[in-house]
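Hey, I'm writing a tutorial for new members on how sequence and structure tokens pair up, and I'd like a real worked example in the thread rather than a made-up one. If someone can provide the structure for the chain below, I'll link this post from the tutorial.
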Amino acid sequence: MLALVISICGLPLFYAFQKQLHKQAQFNYIETHPQEKMEGLIHLTVKDVESLPTGFEWEEENIEFRFHGMMYDVVSIKKKNAEWIITALADTVEVSIEKTNQQFAKQDQENNQKAQKLFKWVFTPYISFSNAEVSIIYDMASIYFPMIKQSAVQRWAASPYLPPKVNA
């Protein structure tokens, strides 16, 4: 089933699905475990919830945020006197999922560029050229292959590749 989803929808959808499953598991963990037993908790104290520290960015407001490149899931937000205390749990697994997804996207882009270069290299001789390109090919051919008749080079460069005719 997983292979079918990946083959039809691609890796980005798979990573979105994997990330969503992890988020649900993380929220279930937060709801069922006492804060004293959680490892990776941070406590941010801010004077105003609208004015957050540098490097702080909400992914989902009051649920999940990014702080200096690390993802955190909100455990609680409490007001104490004139300050707000945001308690959050570090989410290293989600960061790992994102990095893996970025690596595969980069690799996919590089493979796509390599495929385009190969395609151009293989099929360029069969593409019709403009007059300027024909004259360049003609000049280069006469320099590198002086024994080839110039008219043959000119005809080759000016005409597109046509497959052989089939007698029907």
